[in-house]
Hints:
By secondary structure, the protein is α/β, with parallel strands linked by helices. The chain has three domains: about 5-170, P-loop containing nucleotide triphosphate hydrolases (Rossmann fold), CATH 3.40.50.300; about 180-355, P-loop containing nucleotide triphosphate hydrolases (Rossmann fold), CATH 3.40.50; about 360-445, K homology (KH) domain (GMP Synthetase, Chain A, domain 3, 2-Layer Sandwich). Helix content is about 35%, strand content about 20%. It has helices at about 15-25, 70-80, 100-110, 125-130, 150-170, 190-200, 245-260, 275-290, 305-320, 345-355, 360-375, 410-425, and strands spanning about 5-10, 40-45, 50-55, 85-90, 115-120, 140-145, 180-185, 220-225, 225-235, 265-270, 290-300, 330, 380, 380-385, 385-395, 400-405, 435-440. It has a six-stranded mixed β-sheet, with helices on both faces. Strand 5, helix 4 (about 125-130) and strand 6 form a beta-alpha-beta unit.
Amino acid sequence: MALKVAIVGRPNVGKSTLFNRLVGQKLALVDDTPGVTRDRREGEAALGDLRFRAIDTAGLDEADEGSLGQRMQEQTARALADADVALFVVDARDGLTPLDRHFADVLRRGTAPVLLVANKSEGRAGDSGALEAFALGLGEPIAISAEHGDGMAELYAALAPYADQAAAGESKAITAERPLQLAVIGRPNVGKSTLVNRLIGEERLLTGPEAGITRDAIAIQWNFQGRAVRLIDTAGLRRRPKIEEKLEKLSVADALRAIRFAEVVVLVIDATQMLEKQDLSIAHMVEEEGRALVLAVNKWDMVEDKSAALRKLKDRIEISLPQLQGVRFVLLSALTGTGMAKLMPAVMSTHAAWNRRIATPRLNRWLAAVQQRHPPPLVKGRRLKLRYMTQANIRPPTFALFAATPAALPDSYRRYLVNLMREDFDLPGVPIRMMLRKGENPYARDR
Length: 447
């Protein structure tokens, strides 16, 4: 995957539509509203037998010093600096604009080769705009329709030489290890993007005091102590009644999709507003999806009475998250870096617990000892007998418990077993599924 291709252009010319076309799925949010894309997003793209890494960027636009728009442009500039070739997209239906001409001059002064792409060229309405694009002095425009897939053969022919050059210079090691899928979620403005930037050691994501800067779920390929990690920053999750605009609904759906495909989820909470109702709702959502959870208690440097805040945090976890007893939390400041060194070890430890498999003989010795120490309740005057137990799955740990009358086992005793398993088998903070089954001990038939 040597070749990197940055897709640039002014707002609303179809960059994200082209990105989605190249990666073969709707990864980037698409809407008629200009400026939907803010952070740069990367994905594995394909055109025929050509494989490369596509980078979707924010629309090139003029912006005031220190504004969100300027920070978006800085992200685009970083994408261009990292790319082997740039696709400069213009709108063939709108024709050339002063912004197109301005940014064509900027791109000509850069180091990355530029391919001019005239999007929305389908039909007669796009013919004149495609011809007009010659005036930019960036060579012959490639007429395409990202929405309908027209012109992809021509785009392939233009990109192929750059892929050959990149492949010739590629000398990186290939690892078969599957990257750990790590999603960073939380309410708006709790510091998710700042935390991700601090983790990877660069200003990869837009940050600022404005709430809701992140819209897409942005995936970043990263490496932690030799382990491949796919790090996903997500849009802030607000309470459902407050989610009104179409664009925010798309962002929230993107964040929820990131949770479903994650292995470990880092829930970032604001230490000055410790575990609010929405934080707990998000944590419950993660547990229901069966993902492993780590709490990142951000802005810890702003807490004055740290002892009282820590007691409040532990009480809230014990009372409001009983199904995730022992969940790991890290007190940190993403802005200053304090405590950040503890976050990834907590993630890796939680991931190991989420993948833990326990041998069947060990489980059944444990089950016999538990019943001797704390027997199940009486059912119709007779002691309920739990016959056999085995682990049916991992990710999350899932167990099948066999009994003659499984429906008679009270929920309280099942919860007792689950909580005891966390302690005895070192499974803190991960969802544990326990399925009750009717049947005999299969080992008994072999005796």
